[in-house]
Design brief:
By secondary structure, this protein is α/β, with parallel strands linked by helices. It is 33% helix and 24% strand. The chain has 13 helices and 18 strands. It has a seven-stranded mixed sheet with strand order 2-3-4-1-5-6-7, with helices on both faces. The chain has a six-stranded mixed sheet with strand order 9-10-8-13-14-15, with helices on both faces. Strands 16-17-18 form a three-stranded mixed sheet. Helix 11 crosses helix 12. The longest helix is centred in the first third of the chain and has 16 residues.
Length: 446
Amino acid sequence: MKPVLALVGRPNVGKSTLFNRLTKSRDAIVADFAGLTRDRHYGNGKQGRQEFIVIDTGGFEPDASTGIYKEMAKQTQQAVAEADMVIFVVDARGGLSAQDHDIAKYLRKIGKPTLLVANKAEGMLEGIQLTEFYELGLGEVIAISAAHGQGTRGLVELAFESLNLPDEPEETEDDPSVIKLAVAGRPNVGKSTLINTWLGEERLVAFDMPGTTRDAISVPFEKQGQKFELIDTAGLRRKGKVFEAIEKFSVVKTLQAIESANVVLLLLDAEQGVTDQDAHIAGYALESGRAMVLAVNKWDAVDEYQRQLVQRSIETRLPFLSFANMHFISAKKRQGLGPVWASIVQAHKAAMCKMSTPILTRLLLEAVQFQSPQRGGMFRPKLRYAHQGGMNPPVIVVHGNSLEHVTDTYKRFLEGRFRKAFNLSGTPLRIEMKTSTNPFADKESS
Protein backbone atom coordinates (compact mmCIF):
# COMPACT_ATOMS: atom_id res chain seq x y z
CA MET A 1 0.00 0.00 0.00
CA LYS A 2 1.24 3.49 -0.79
CA PRO A 3 2.69 5.38 2.18
CA VAL A 4 1.03 8.72 2.97
CA LEU A 5 3.00 11.91 3.71
CA ALA A 6 1.15 14.95 5.16
CA LEU A 7 2.65 18.45 4.86
CA VAL A 8 1.79 20.71 7.79
CA GLY A 9 2.99 24.07 8.99
CA ARG A 10 1.97 27.70 9.37
CA PRO A 11 1.02 29.75 6.28
CA ASN A 12 3.58 30.78 3.66
CA VAL A 13 6.36 28.36 4.60
CA GLY A 14 6.31 26.68 1.18
CA LYS A 15 4.08 23.65 1.74
CA SER A 16 2.35 23.99 -1.62
CA THR A 17 5.69 24.47 -3.38
CA LEU A 18 6.97 21.29 -1.75
CA PHE A 19 3.71 19.52 -2.67
CA ASN A 20 4.16 20.46 -6.33
CA ARG A 21 7.80 19.39 -6.21
CA LEU A 22 7.00 15.97 -4.73
CA THR A 23 4.06 15.27 -7.05
CA LYS A 24 5.76 16.81 -10.12
CA SER A 25 2.40 18.33 -10.97
CA ARG A 26 0.01 21.04 -9.99
CA ASP A 27 -2.90 18.64 -10.22
CA ALA A 28 -4.48 17.53 -6.98
CA ILE A 29 -7.48 15.63 -5.76
CA VAL A 30 -9.59 17.80 -3.48
CA ALA A 31 -11.61 16.69 -0.49
CA ASP A 32 -14.36 19.28 -0.70
CA PHE A 33 -16.68 19.12 2.28
CA ALA A 34 -19.62 21.51 2.31
CA GLY A 35 -18.99 24.53 4.51
CA LEU A 36 -15.23 24.18 4.65
CA THR A 37 -13.37 27.19 3.32
CA ARG A 38 -9.91 25.64 2.98
CA ASP A 39 -9.62 22.10 1.65
CA ARG A 40 -6.77 19.67 1.86
CA HIS A 41 -5.27 18.46 -1.41
CA TYR A 42 -4.06 15.02 -2.44
CA GLY A 43 -1.53 14.08 -5.08
CA ASN A 44 0.55 11.12 -6.20
CA GLY A 45 4.34 11.06 -6.02
CA LYS A 46 6.92 8.52 -7.12
CA GLN A 47 10.56 8.08 -6.27
CA GLY A 48 12.33 5.15 -7.86
CA ARG A 49 9.79 2.34 -7.88
CA GLN A 50 8.09 3.50 -4.68
CA GLU A 51 4.86 5.42 -5.12
CA PHE A 52 3.36 7.53 -2.35
CA ILE A 53 0.49 9.92 -1.61
CA VAL A 54 1.11 13.53 -0.52
CA ILE A 55 -1.42 15.64 1.38
CA ASP A 56 -1.13 19.43 1.25
CA THR A 57 -2.85 21.42 4.00
CA GLY A 58 -3.59 25.03 4.82
CA GLY A 59 -1.96 27.11 7.53
CA PHE A 60 -2.29 25.24 10.82
CA GLU A 61 -3.35 26.80 14.12
CA PRO A 62 -4.01 23.85 16.47
CA ASP A 63 -5.71 26.00 19.12
CA ALA A 64 -7.98 27.94 16.74
CA SER A 65 -11.55 27.93 18.06
CA THR A 66 -13.51 30.10 15.62
CA GLY A 67 -13.94 30.96 11.98
CA ILE A 68 -11.82 29.93 9.03
CA TYR A 69 -8.79 29.02 11.16
CA LYS A 70 -10.83 26.47 13.10
CA GLU A 71 -12.02 24.87 9.86
CA MET A 72 -8.48 24.83 8.45
CA ALA A 73 -7.26 23.23 11.68
CA LYS A 74 -9.88 20.48 11.30
CA GLN A 75 -8.66 19.78 7.78
CA THR A 76 -5.05 19.58 8.91
CA GLN A 77 -5.91 17.33 11.86
CA GLN A 78 -7.73 14.98 9.47
CA ALA A 79 -4.71 14.94 7.16
CA VAL A 80 -2.41 14.11 10.09
CA ALA A 81 -4.75 11.30 11.15
CA GLU A 82 -4.65 9.82 7.63
CA ALA A 83 -0.89 10.10 7.24
CA ASP A 84 1.85 7.57 7.95
CA MET A 85 4.45 10.33 8.23
CA VAL A 86 4.02 14.05 9.00
CA ILE A 87 6.41 16.50 7.35
CA PHE A 88 6.40 19.64 9.50
CA VAL A 89 7.58 22.53 7.34
CA VAL A 90 9.12 25.67 8.89
CA ASP A 91 10.62 28.78 7.29
CA ALA A 92 14.41 28.75 7.52
CA ARG A 93 14.63 32.45 6.59
CA GLY A 94 11.67 33.65 8.65
CA GLY A 95 12.92 31.90 11.77
CA LEU A 96 11.05 30.27 14.61
CA SER A 97 7.61 31.56 15.61
CA ALA A 98 5.14 31.00 18.43
CA GLN A 99 2.85 29.22 15.96
CA ASP A 100 5.65 26.76 15.16
CA HIS A 101 5.84 25.96 18.87
CA ASP A 102 2.06 25.36 19.01
CA ILE A 103 2.18 23.00 16.03
CA ALA A 104 5.18 21.12 17.45
CA LYS A 105 3.37 20.74 20.78
CA TYR A 106 0.37 19.24 18.98
CA LEU A 107 2.51 16.83 16.93
CA ARG A 108 4.43 15.66 20.01
CA LYS A 109 1.14 15.08 21.81
CA ILE A 110 -0.38 12.83 19.13
CA GLY A 111 2.88 10.92 18.66
CA LYS A 112 2.70 10.60 14.87
CA PRO A 113 6.10 9.99 13.17
CA THR A 114 7.32 13.45 12.16
CA LEU A 115 10.17 14.94 10.15
CA LEU A 116 11.07 18.58 10.81
CA VAL A 117 11.92 20.35 7.54
CA ALA A 118 13.39 23.84 7.22
CA ASN A 119 12.39 25.15 3.81
CA LYS A 120 13.91 28.09 1.88
CA ALA A 121 17.37 27.07 3.16
CA GLU A 122 19.25 27.55 -0.10
CA GLY A 123 22.69 29.06 0.50
CA MET A 124 22.41 28.94 4.30
CA LEU A 125 24.86 27.44 6.74
CA GLU A 126 22.86 24.56 8.14
CA GLY A 127 24.74 24.21 11.41
CA ILE A 128 24.39 27.84 12.47
CA GLN A 129 21.18 29.36 11.18
CA LEU A 130 18.96 26.34 11.82
CA THR A 131 19.97 25.80 15.44
CA GLU A 132 16.91 27.55 16.88
CA PHE A 133 14.53 24.97 15.36
CA TYR A 134 15.91 22.29 17.67
CA GLU A 135 13.87 24.02 20.40
CA LEU A 136 10.78 22.35 18.91
CA GLY A 137 11.88 18.99 20.29
CA LEU A 138 11.25 17.06 17.08
CA GLY A 139 14.76 15.83 16.42
CA GLU A 140 17.02 16.64 13.48
CA VAL A 141 16.27 19.63 11.26
CA ILE A 142 16.34 18.76 7.55
CA ALA A 143 17.32 21.71 5.35
CA ILE A 144 15.71 21.87 1.90
CA SER A 145 14.70 24.30 -0.82
CA ALA A 146 11.41 23.20 -2.37
CA ALA A 147 11.58 25.97 -4.97
CA HIS A 148 15.01 24.82 -6.20
CA GLY A 149 14.51 21.10 -5.55
CA GLN A 150 17.43 20.93 -3.12
CA GLY A 151 17.19 18.16 -0.52
CA THR A 152 13.70 16.99 -1.50
CA ARG A 153 14.85 13.61 -2.78
CA GLY A 154 16.78 12.95 0.42
CA LEU A 155 13.72 14.02 2.42
CA VAL A 156 11.52 11.40 0.78
CA GLU A 157 14.21 8.72 1.20
CA LEU A 158 14.49 9.57 4.90
CA ALA A 159 10.69 9.34 5.24
CA PHE A 160 10.73 5.89 3.66
CA GLU A 161 13.59 4.78 5.92
CA SER A 162 11.72 6.01 9.00
CA LEU A 163 8.65 4.00 7.96
CA ASN A 164 10.80 0.87 7.43
CA LEU A 165 9.47 0.39 3.92
CA PRO A 166 10.94 -2.45 1.86
CA ASP A 167 13.54 -1.43 -0.73
CA GLU A 168 11.36 -2.88 -3.47
CA PRO A 169 7.55 -2.81 -3.43
CA GLU A 170 6.22 -6.22 -2.52
CA GLU A 171 4.62 -8.11 -5.36
CA THR A 172 2.03 -10.59 -4.24
CA GLU A 173 0.43 -13.31 -6.30
CA ASP A 174 -3.28 -12.61 -6.64
CA ASP A 175 -5.89 -15.24 -7.37
CA PRO A 176 -7.20 -14.21 -10.81
CA SER A 177 -10.57 -15.83 -10.08
CA VAL A 178 -11.25 -13.42 -7.20
CA ILE A 179 -12.75 -10.05 -8.11
CA LYS A 180 -11.45 -7.23 -5.92
CA LEU A 181 -14.32 -4.79 -5.51
CA ALA A 182 -14.17 -1.32 -3.96
CA VAL A 183 -17.37 0.52 -3.01
CA ALA A 184 -16.62 4.23 -3.23
CA GLY A 185 -18.73 7.32 -2.69
CA ARG A 186 -19.39 10.32 -0.50
CA PRO A 187 -20.41 10.06 3.17
CA ASN A 188 -24.04 9.09 3.79
CA VAL A 189 -24.59 7.95 0.22
CA GLY A 190 -25.55 4.48 1.44
CA LYS A 191 -22.30 2.49 1.30
CA SER A 192 -22.92 1.08 4.76
CA THR A 193 -26.45 -0.02 3.94
CA LEU A 194 -25.34 -1.65 0.72
CA ILE A 195 -22.43 -3.46 2.38
CA ASN A 196 -24.65 -4.73 5.20
CA THR A 197 -27.20 -5.93 2.65
CA TRP A 198 -24.52 -7.90 0.82
CA LEU A 199 -22.72 -9.39 3.80
CA GLY A 200 -25.54 -9.98 6.25
CA GLU A 201 -25.11 -10.22 10.01
CA GLU A 202 -23.62 -13.67 10.42
CA ARG A 203 -20.21 -13.25 8.77
CA LEU A 204 -17.52 -11.21 10.49
CA VAL A 205 -14.27 -11.33 8.59
CA ALA A 206 -12.41 -8.07 9.24
CA PHE A 207 -12.04 -5.26 11.74
CA ASP A 208 -11.32 -1.58 11.29
CA MET A 209 -8.56 -1.03 13.87
CA PRO A 210 -7.47 2.49 14.84
CA GLY A 211 -4.12 3.53 13.45
CA THR A 212 -4.09 1.19 10.45
CA THR A 213 -4.73 3.81 7.80
CA ARG A 214 -2.32 2.15 5.36
CA ASP A 215 -4.17 -1.16 5.41
CA ALA A 216 -7.38 -1.45 3.41
CA ILE A 217 -10.12 -3.52 5.03
CA SER A 218 -10.66 -6.67 2.97
CA VAL A 219 -13.77 -8.79 3.35
CA PRO A 220 -13.90 -12.04 1.33
CA PHE A 221 -17.33 -13.28 0.33
CA GLU A 222 -18.97 -15.35 -2.38
CA LYS A 223 -22.06 -14.85 -4.49
CA GLN A 224 -23.50 -17.29 -7.02
CA GLY A 225 -20.22 -19.22 -7.13
CA GLN A 226 -18.11 -16.12 -7.82
CA LYS A 227 -15.53 -15.17 -5.19
CA PHE A 228 -15.17 -11.49 -4.31
CA GLU A 229 -12.92 -9.47 -2.06
CA LEU A 230 -14.64 -6.35 -0.81
CA ILE A 231 -12.16 -3.53 -0.21
CA ASP A 232 -14.12 -1.30 2.13
CA THR A 233 -14.07 2.49 2.24
CA ALA A 234 -16.94 2.97 4.70
CA GLY A 235 -15.13 1.47 7.70
CA LEU A 236 -16.47 -1.80 9.09
CA ARG A 237 -16.62 -2.25 12.84
CA ARG A 238 -17.91 -5.05 15.00
CA LYS A 239 -20.79 -4.49 17.42
CA GLY A 240 -21.72 -7.74 19.07
CA LYS A 241 -22.49 -10.22 16.29
CA VAL A 242 -23.72 -7.58 13.88
CA PHE A 243 -21.85 -5.74 11.15
CA GLU A 244 -22.07 -2.05 11.78
CA ALA A 245 -20.64 0.15 9.06
CA ILE A 246 -19.56 3.52 10.37
CA GLU A 247 -20.12 6.25 7.80
CA LYS A 248 -16.89 8.18 7.81
CA PHE A 249 -14.91 9.59 4.95
CA SER A 250 -11.19 9.16 4.65
CA VAL A 251 -9.85 10.35 1.32
CA VAL A 252 -6.70 8.29 1.69
CA LYS A 253 -8.66 5.14 2.46
CA THR A 254 -10.80 5.72 -0.61
CA LEU A 255 -7.79 6.30 -2.89
CA GLN A 256 -6.02 3.23 -1.57
CA ALA A 257 -9.14 1.08 -1.94
CA ILE A 258 -9.54 2.21 -5.56
CA GLU A 259 -5.94 1.37 -6.37
CA SER A 260 -6.20 -2.06 -4.74
CA ALA A 261 -9.38 -2.99 -6.61
CA ASN A 262 -10.12 -4.56 -9.99
CA VAL A 263 -13.60 -3.00 -10.13
CA VAL A 264 -14.90 0.17 -8.47
CA LEU A 265 -18.60 0.53 -7.70
CA LEU A 266 -19.22 4.28 -7.53
CA LEU A 267 -22.31 4.94 -5.45
CA LEU A 268 -24.22 8.16 -6.13
CA ASP A 269 -27.07 9.76 -4.18
CA ALA A 270 -30.30 10.28 -6.16
CA GLU A 271 -31.41 12.99 -3.72
CA GLN A 272 -28.28 15.10 -4.22
CA GLY A 273 -27.20 14.31 -7.77
CA VAL A 274 -23.55 14.41 -8.87
CA THR A 275 -21.30 16.60 -6.71
CA ASP A 276 -17.71 17.76 -7.17
CA GLN A 277 -16.63 15.08 -4.72
CA ASP A 278 -18.27 12.37 -6.86
CA ALA A 279 -16.48 13.72 -9.92
CA HIS A 280 -13.10 13.74 -8.10
CA ILE A 281 -13.53 10.11 -6.99
CA ALA A 282 -14.61 9.06 -10.49
CA GLY A 283 -11.69 10.93 -12.07
CA TYR A 284 -9.19 9.25 -9.76
CA ALA A 285 -10.65 5.81 -10.52
CA LEU A 286 -10.40 6.52 -14.25
CA GLU A 287 -6.81 7.78 -13.88
CA SER A 288 -6.00 4.56 -12.03
CA GLY A 289 -7.45 2.57 -14.94
CA ARG A 290 -10.06 0.78 -12.89
CA ALA A 291 -13.13 -0.91 -14.32
CA MET A 292 -16.24 0.84 -13.03
CA VAL A 293 -19.93 0.41 -12.39
CA LEU A 294 -22.24 3.30 -11.47
CA ALA A 295 -25.11 2.81 -9.03
CA VAL A 296 -27.54 5.59 -8.12
CA ASN A 297 -28.87 4.83 -4.64
CA LYS A 298 -32.10 6.02 -2.98
CA TRP A 299 -33.85 5.88 -6.37
CA ASP A 300 -37.12 5.04 -4.57
CA ALA A 301 -36.97 8.30 -2.59
CA VAL A 302 -37.16 10.74 -5.54
CA ASP A 303 -39.90 11.69 -7.97
CA GLU A 304 -39.75 11.57 -11.77
CA TYR A 305 -38.55 15.16 -12.12
CA GLN A 306 -35.61 14.58 -9.74
CA ARG A 307 -34.77 11.37 -11.58
CA GLN A 308 -34.45 13.27 -14.83
CA LEU A 309 -32.23 15.87 -13.15
CA VAL A 310 -29.96 13.15 -11.78
CA GLN A 311 -29.62 11.44 -15.16
CA ARG A 312 -28.85 14.77 -16.82
CA SER A 313 -26.22 15.62 -14.19
CA ILE A 314 -24.52 12.26 -14.74
CA GLU A 315 -24.40 12.86 -18.49
CA THR A 316 -22.96 16.37 -18.11
CA ARG A 317 -20.61 15.92 -15.13
CA LEU A 318 -19.40 12.35 -15.70
CA PRO A 319 -19.22 12.06 -19.50
CA PHE A 320 -15.84 10.33 -19.21
CA LEU A 321 -17.60 7.34 -17.59
CA SER A 322 -19.80 6.59 -20.60
CA PHE A 323 -18.19 3.13 -20.76
CA ALA A 324 -19.58 2.18 -17.33
CA ASN A 325 -22.95 0.47 -16.88
CA MET A 326 -25.37 2.47 -14.73
CA HIS A 327 -28.01 1.11 -12.35
CA PHE A 328 -30.72 2.70 -10.23
CA ILE A 329 -31.08 0.98 -6.90
CA SER A 330 -32.39 1.16 -3.36
CA ALA A 331 -29.93 -0.49 -0.98
CA LYS A 332 -32.37 -0.04 1.90
CA LYS A 333 -35.21 -1.86 0.11
CA ARG A 334 -32.87 -4.24 -1.73
CA GLN A 335 -34.18 -3.15 -5.11
CA GLY A 336 -32.18 -3.44 -8.34
CA LEU A 337 -29.13 -5.13 -6.81
CA GLY A 338 -29.12 -8.21 -9.06
CA PRO A 339 -28.15 -6.40 -12.29
CA VAL A 340 -25.37 -4.59 -10.39
CA TRP A 341 -23.64 -7.91 -9.75
CA ALA A 342 -23.90 -8.85 -13.41
CA SER A 343 -22.28 -5.54 -14.40
CA ILE A 344 -19.47 -5.99 -11.85
CA VAL A 345 -18.64 -9.43 -13.24
CA GLN A 346 -18.84 -8.10 -16.81
CA ALA A 347 -16.59 -5.11 -16.01
CA HIS A 348 -13.98 -7.43 -14.50
CA LYS A 349 -14.16 -9.75 -17.49
CA ALA A 350 -13.68 -6.80 -19.84
CA ALA A 351 -10.75 -5.42 -17.82
CA MET A 352 -8.99 -8.79 -18.00
CA CYS A 353 -9.85 -9.44 -21.66
CA LYS A 354 -7.13 -10.99 -23.82
CA MET A 355 -7.05 -9.74 -27.42
CA SER A 356 -5.02 -11.49 -30.09
CA THR A 357 -2.76 -9.50 -32.40
CA PRO A 358 -4.27 -10.88 -35.67
CA ILE A 359 -7.80 -9.91 -34.62
CA LEU A 360 -6.73 -6.47 -33.41
CA THR A 361 -4.85 -5.81 -36.63
CA ARG A 362 -7.80 -6.95 -38.75
CA LEU A 363 -10.15 -4.66 -36.80
CA LEU A 364 -7.69 -1.79 -37.19
CA LEU A 365 -7.37 -2.20 -40.95
CA GLU A 366 -11.14 -2.54 -41.33
CA ALA A 367 -11.59 0.70 -39.38
CA VAL A 368 -9.07 2.51 -41.58
CA GLN A 369 -10.79 1.21 -44.69
CA PHE A 370 -14.14 2.42 -43.36
CA GLN A 371 -12.80 5.83 -42.33
CA SER A 372 -9.23 7.05 -42.87
CA PRO A 373 -7.59 9.38 -40.34
CA GLN A 374 -7.33 13.05 -41.26
CA ARG A 375 -4.18 14.28 -42.94
CA GLY A 376 -1.79 16.08 -40.61
CA GLY A 377 0.22 18.65 -42.54
CA MET A 378 1.91 16.98 -45.50
CA PHE A 379 1.39 13.45 -44.24
CA ARG A 380 -1.57 11.21 -43.60
CA PRO A 381 -1.12 8.85 -40.64
CA LYS A 382 -0.64 5.23 -41.72
CA LEU A 383 -1.92 2.67 -39.20
CA ARG A 384 -0.29 -0.68 -39.93
CA TYR A 385 -0.92 -3.14 -37.08
CA ALA A 386 -2.02 -3.36 -33.43
CA HIS A 387 -1.36 -5.56 -30.43
CA GLN A 388 -2.37 -5.69 -26.79
CA GLY A 389 -0.07 -3.80 -24.43
CA GLY A 390 -1.64 -4.63 -21.07
CA MET A 391 -4.70 -5.55 -19.02
CA ASN A 392 -6.68 -3.95 -16.19
CA PRO A 393 -7.17 -1.64 -18.01
CA PRO A 394 -6.81 -3.07 -21.52
CA VAL A 395 -4.17 -1.25 -23.57
CA ILE A 396 -4.04 -1.44 -27.36
CA VAL A 397 -0.80 -0.33 -29.03
CA VAL A 398 -1.11 0.82 -32.64
CA HIS A 399 2.01 0.95 -34.84
CA GLY A 400 2.49 2.93 -38.03
CA ASN A 401 3.87 6.15 -39.50
CA SER A 402 3.07 9.78 -38.64
CA LEU A 403 0.78 8.62 -35.82
CA GLU A 404 1.43 11.80 -33.84
CA HIS A 405 -1.11 13.41 -36.20
CA VAL A 406 -3.91 11.01 -35.22
CA THR A 407 -6.63 13.13 -33.61
CA ASP A 408 -8.44 12.37 -30.36
CA THR A 409 -11.65 12.10 -32.36
CA TYR A 410 -10.18 9.32 -34.48
CA LYS A 411 -8.87 7.56 -31.39
CA ARG A 412 -12.41 7.57 -29.99
CA PHE A 413 -13.63 6.15 -33.30
CA LEU A 414 -11.13 3.30 -33.01
CA GLU A 415 -12.00 2.79 -29.35
CA GLY A 416 -15.67 2.37 -30.23
CA ARG A 417 -14.93 -0.33 -32.79
CA PHE A 418 -12.57 -2.21 -30.45
CA ARG A 419 -15.11 -2.01 -27.61
CA LYS A 420 -17.90 -3.38 -29.76
CA ALA A 421 -15.79 -6.25 -31.11
CA PHE A 422 -14.56 -7.42 -27.69
CA ASN A 423 -17.59 -6.32 -25.60
CA LEU A 424 -15.45 -4.08 -23.39
CA SER A 425 -18.25 -2.48 -21.37
CA GLY A 426 -17.35 -1.38 -17.87
CA THR A 427 -13.63 -0.80 -18.34
CA PRO A 428 -11.51 2.09 -19.60
CA LEU A 429 -9.63 1.34 -22.82
CA ARG A 430 -6.32 3.01 -23.56
CA ILE A 431 -5.01 3.34 -27.11
CA GLU A 432 -1.32 4.16 -27.55
CA MET A 433 0.20 5.26 -30.83
CA LYS A 434 3.79 4.24 -31.67
CA THR A 435 5.33 5.82 -34.74
CA SER A 436 8.03 3.96 -36.62
CA THR A 437 11.17 6.01 -37.29
CA ASN A 438 11.79 7.07 -40.86
CA PRO A 439 15.37 6.13 -41.85
CA PHE A 440 15.30 8.70 -44.68
CA ALA A 441 14.11 11.63 -42.52
CA ASP A 442 17.61 13.08 -42.05
CA LYS A 443 18.45 12.76 -45.77
CA GLU A 444 15.23 14.50 -46.80
CA SER A 445 15.86 17.43 -44.44
CA SER A 446 19.47 17.91 -45.57
